[in-house]
Design a protein that fits this description.
The complex is a heterodimer of chains A (249) and B (273). With 249 residues, chain A is an alpha/beta fold. Chain A is built from nine helices and ten strands. The radius of gyration of chain A is 18 Å and the shape is globular. In chain B, helix 5 packs across helix 7, helix 9 packs antiparallel against helix 11 and helix 10 runs antiparallel to helix 11. The mean pLDDT of chain B is 90. Classes of the chains: A alpha/beta (249), B mainly alpha (273).
Chain lengths: 249, 273
């Protein structure tokens, strides 16, 4: 099947430090891929390069038919990046809800400003998504009044308002108290079940084992090992994967 | 048991007499105010060998001229409101330029800020009113004062705006970008509203400071509060009374502004994290 996300020969340097050393990735539609690895292994940077929150130094990114090569500076290039971002929703470790807007306003902002929808068009979509994440009753509340888990669920709903074809999750549960992790994973599990293509950077091995179609172990800016969770998490071939799993499990 | 009750009594009496600190502050404020009024009462008396005389104001002069001076309040208020609004526009433009990666704008803004902060406001006011006519540019006293005050305060406030914009977390920008918003949409819809909230107290302080700096405009014949006070006081050698009337007005205006500033801050704090 034609992949929905392709990453070709991706290089990213911060100063002299090469964080990504020629990464290649193909994600099929409806596939759920979990990226695991030590901090500093480049997994978050890879995710952030896919929607150009970090500008790659080399390589080509393609998401749902929009192909953007690295390192250009033209107006056209910037326009392509914006189109690519509309197709790739992102969820951050620190939620990043807009604190000066209510939950509903957080959700209708991008559809109105980016897609040019009217308020009347945007509200029903937002309400449906709030229902989906179980927070319909919080529509007029400010984010500061919500728990971390609720904020992250709103953030997921906010990303979904743009009807993305891929969802990128950057350690979505790492900033949460242990008792709040479950509700966020539950929403992500539902999303996967509905057929959303997902790329998830996570330390939640239970989630990876249960939901992922493929697990990729990263170390030193390259893919060390990848495969179905049953293989990659249970019976890893590479020594570095084995050591990492021993420490985390 | 009876013994114990007797023992407890003194401390209970002391507690009943203790006044909460905020109330103490208000009482003392009133007391010092009364003392200030007394200083200006003109009452004289002797304590043993020492003769004490307080400041005697010419109340007849004040009764005749206070209305004349007070009309300046309107000009002062107009001057400061128009100037603070145009200063904010300038400050925002300069702050955005200072944050941009476009060298011509960035450097122009820092030159402007440096120049305006490096010369006295008094000089700027007189320069615009009295030096520019040499180049054929003649402005009214009011326009000159507005121009000088906005340029000067715009420079100072651009630093406040810049700090406010930088205080909005990087994550906010990233979240907006990830949703497909352009840098300008992100600035307008996400960053600036939050930055304004952060800097509201500072803008309030600048407004209060400007309220008083408008008095410098009296140097270019503008008849605002200060100018009228001098006009009333000079020919009759009654500067003391005239300036006290003006001072009271400036003080009252400042108190009123501070009150609104606090209310505004309170309202803006509602949705804070």
């Amino acid at each position: 099947m034609e992949p929905i996300v392709t990453v070709q020969n991706l290089h990213k340097r911060f100063g002299n430090l090469e964080v990504l050393k020629g990464v290649n990735l193909r994600v099929a539609p409806r596939e759920v891929v979990c990226l695991i690895g030590r901090s500093g292994s480049g997994k978050s940077t890879l995710l952030r390069c896919i929607n150009f929150l970090e500008e790659p130094n080399e390589g080509v990114i393609s998401v749902a038919g929009i192909t953007v090569p690295a390192g250009e500076r033209t107006r056209e290039h910037r326009q392509h990046i914006i189109e690519l971002r509309e197709r790739a929703g992102m969820v951050f470790q620190s939620f990043n809800l807009f604190p000066h807007k209510t939950v509903l306003e957080n959700l209708i902002e991008a559809p109105m400003i980016v897609k040019g929808m009217s308020r009347e068009q945007a509200i029903p979509i937002a309400e449906k998504l709030l229902e989906k994440v179980g927070l319909a009753s919080k529509r007029d509340v400010y984010p500061s009044k919500l728990s971390g888990g609720q904020q992250q669920r709103v953030a997921i709903a906010r990303a979904l308002t743009m009807e993305p074809q891929v969802m990128l999750f950057d350690e979505p549960t790492s900033a949460l108290d242990p008792e709040l992790i479950g509700e966020v994973l539950e929403v992500m599990r539902d999303l996967a079940r509905d057929g959303m293509t997902m790329l998830v950077v996570t330390h939640e091995m239970g989630f990876a084992r249960e939901v992922a179609d493929r697990v990729i172990f990263m170390d030193g800016g390259v893919f060390v090992e990848e495969g179905p969770p049953a293989q990659c998490l249970v019976n890893p071939q590479d020594e570095r994967t084995r050591r990492f799993l021993e420490r985390i499990l | 048991m009876a013994d114990k009750a007797v023992e407890l009594q003194p401390s209970m009496v002391r507690r009943r007499l203790s006044i909460p600190f905020p109330v103490q502050l208000v009482l003392w404020w009133c007391l010092w105010l009364l003392f200030l009024l007394f200083l200006f009462s003109g009452i004289g008396f002797s304590l043993g060998f020492i003769r004490i005389r307080t400041i005697a104001l010419d109340w007849g002069f004040i009764a005749t001229w206070w209305l004349f001076i007070s009309k300046g309040v309107i000009v002062t208020f107009e001057l400061s409101v128009i100037s603070i609004i145009s200063a904010m526009v300038l400050a925002l433009a300069a702050a955005l330029a200072r944050l941009s990666r476009f060298a011509p704008f960035n450097s122009l803004a820092s030159l402007y800020v440096s120049l305006m902060r490096g010369t006295p406001l008094y000089l700027q006011i007189i320069f615009i009113y009295q030096a520019l006519p040499q180049l054929g540019l003649v402005l009214t006293a009011f326009t000159s004062a507005v121009l000088a005050l906005s340029l000067n305060y715009g420079a100072y406030m651009s630093e406040i705006f810049r700090a406010g914009i930088q205080a909005v977390g990087r994550g906010q920008t990233e979240a907006a970008y990830a949703l497909g918003m352009t840098p300008w949409q992100t600035m307008r819809r996400i960053v600036l509203p939050q930055a304004f909230r952060i800097i509201t107290p500072d803008i309030g302080n600048q407004f209060i400071a400007m309220q008083k700096d408008t008095s410098l405009a009296s140097a270019i014949t503008l008849l605002e509060l200060m100018g009228l006070a001098r006009q009333a006081g000079a020919p009759r050698q009654h500067f003391f009374e005239a300036l006290v009337v003006a001072a009271v007005w400036y003080w009252l205006m400042t108190i009123v502004l501070s009150y609104f500033q606090r209310k505004l801050e309170h309202r803006m704090a509602r949705s804070d994290r």
